[in-house]
Amino acid sequence: MVEWEFLILLLTNGVLIGLMYALIALGFVLIYKATDAINFAQGEFVMFASLIVVFAILAFGAPLWLAIAVGVGGMIAFGFGLERVVLRPLIGRPVVAVIMATIGLAAMLRGIGPMLFGSGTQSLALPISDAPIIWGPLFISPIQMLGAGVSICFLAVFGWFFLKSRKGIAMRAVADNQQVAMAMGINVERYFALAWAMAGIVSALGGVVWGNMLGVDVQLALVGLKVFPVVILGGLDSIVGAIVGGIIVGVVENVAAGYLDPIVGGGTKDFAPYVLMILVLMFRPYGIFGKQIIERI
Amino acid sequence: MIHRECGIYKTSYQADMALYPLPIAKWTVAAFAVLLIVVAPIVLDEYYLSILNLIVIASVGAIGLNILVGYTGQISIGHAAFMSVGAYTAANLAVRFDMPFWISLPAGGLMAAAIGAIVGIPSLRIKGLYLAIATLAAQLIIEWTINHVPWISGGVQASIEVPRPSLFGISLDTQRELYFFLMFFAVLAVVGALNLVRSRVGRAFVAIRDQDIAAEIMGINIFRYKLLAFAISSFYAGVTGVLYTYYLGIANYEQFQLVVSIDYLAMIIIGGLGSILGSIFGAIFITLLPIAIRWFMEGFGYLLFTQAELMNIVPHMRLVLFGALIIVFLVLEPEGLNRLWQNVRNYFRVWPFAY
């Protein structure tokens, strides 16, 4: 294969997979933007959502659309409940407490998932073909196209939501300053719950797409580890940042894997995004689009 | 001499910082020393001693992590990686250069301290979540490096077999001999940490935890102290890694993965942040948790579940309980088991009177 064709192939696949990372990172960003809480369980959310969908299909024979609806509904309920039981008591506590609570939650979901739904790997079939679309030098898998499409749709919907809708503007007010928002008559706790529920919706659809691509089992949660480079690059509270960060991470890991894997013997994909992230943390910790925090005593 | 104070009657800083606030504290420590060093090895058999050994090792690591997280307020999700640095350093020294443990153990600790200090460098600019993610990155990068560089990891499945530690020509083979070996270092670790946190350095750590900008204005060089906290904490982690390696007889990166970092964080959260005793409580709790679950499920599980269900439940039960306990402690008792213990003590301090 010609050298530049190989590069273009790596770049396109990187962009597509990056958009799929962005889909998962969106859930993280939504929560951080609205509630300042850090969700280390994002990957587990995705895993749990896809387990619900698969379970609805296998155990109850639900058609795909219904199973996805059940998954979305289940994750919304889960998000509401979680906010009420775990996150609300932790408001105002140190960052470490929230991080540890979501880490604990991640461990719980990893245990509960296989305990309820069995620990074997299930496949989640979608009505699209597995055969790659070949277009010139490009091989594009349809599921990645779908994932990228869902991701872009979410970007558009959330962009509209935060810029135009009443609820979205209220949520931005909550994110900006909780006390002032409260004084303006915004029910802050309700918007916190709403943010977790929205993250649940994103995770459910992310779970369907990723579950189809990787197969549904506990290992699916490892996708969540890619969220951190993405959100650090893009800026923690920026939805556009999640998309751009996702694309950068996707491209970097694909190009690094394409050129470095033959030299070092594999595994560059998991490694390169974190090296990139460390560099960003050193020089621009608030990311490309994030807001810079100024600290006072 | 068997009495306790029923209020705070300290009139000097010396009295406030004393290791033994009352004569009874000395007696308690002495009693525990006799119990752990004389009674336990005589009474317990090899199986229980092996569990005790695991607790002793975990205590060292938990104390180290607590110095960083509980006292200095810097979070680290990369502690298992620092342990692996210590473990592989010691294993390489022991195997390639035939070093005895009293060289390889501090060498492992120092190597981990050096790597830990490097990882801690970003802590000057970033904090909280960002630091958590940076240390997570360090964990993954160190794990990857050890796994992919045969020069460090020994090649075959990234594991190195380590000879048993030997003292005066006697090889420490049984759990009982290992117990004394591990206990010696654990006691050093506890005494070291207790004295560290009441020293000038320890007070600087606490000042940084409470408000780092204010601490800097008061003349504490926060960069130096944050790096020092990372180095000391990683030194403890490295020593833990070495002890664990000698305990297992093999250095293997699978013993030091991300989940282990989270285990240690859980220990200090459940035990109590900013408390040495709490770290030990947490180490005991988290080490015994899977053993207790298995014991309970084997004994009583059949009452509720079928055999096939049990096969599925038991391995996952640990994760569920582990996660649930972290959340419960964070929400209900953020100061952990140590706080519960203090509450019990305070209740009995003036018992049977109300106050």
Descriptive overview:
- The complex is a heterodimer of chains A (297) and B (355).
- By secondary structure, chain A is an all-alpha fold.
- Chain A has one domain (3-117, 165-283).
- Helices cover 73% and strands 2% of the residues of chain A.
- Chain A contains eleven helices and two strands, in the order H-H-H-H-E-E-H-H-H-H-H-H-H.
- Chain A has a two-stranded antiparallel sheet with strand order 1-2.
- The mean pLDDT of chain A is 83.
- In chain B, a hairpin with a 2-residue loop joins strand 2 (166-167) and strand 3.
- Chain B is built from 15 helices and four strands.
- Chain B has 355 residues and is mainly α.
- Chain B has a single domain, classed as ABC transporter involved in vitamin B12 uptake, BtuC (Orthogonal Bundle), CATH 1.10.3470.
- Chain B starts with 12 loop residues before the first helix and ends in a 6-residue tail after the last helix.
- In chain B, strands 1-4 form a two-stranded antiparallel ribbon. In chain B, strands 2-3 form a two-stranded antiparallel sheet.
- The longest helix of chain B has 27 residues, at 222-248.
- Helices cover 73% and strands 3% of the residues of chain B.
- Chain A binds chain B through residues 38, 86, 89-90, 93-97, 99-101, 103-112, 114-115, 118-119, 225, 228-229, 232, 236, 264-265, 267, 270-271, 274-275, 277-278, 281-282, 285, 295-297, and chain B through 69, 73, 75, 122, 125-126, 128-130, 132-134, 136-137, 140-141, 144, 147-148, 211, 213-214, 217, 262, 265-266, 269, 312-313, 316-327, 330-331, 334.
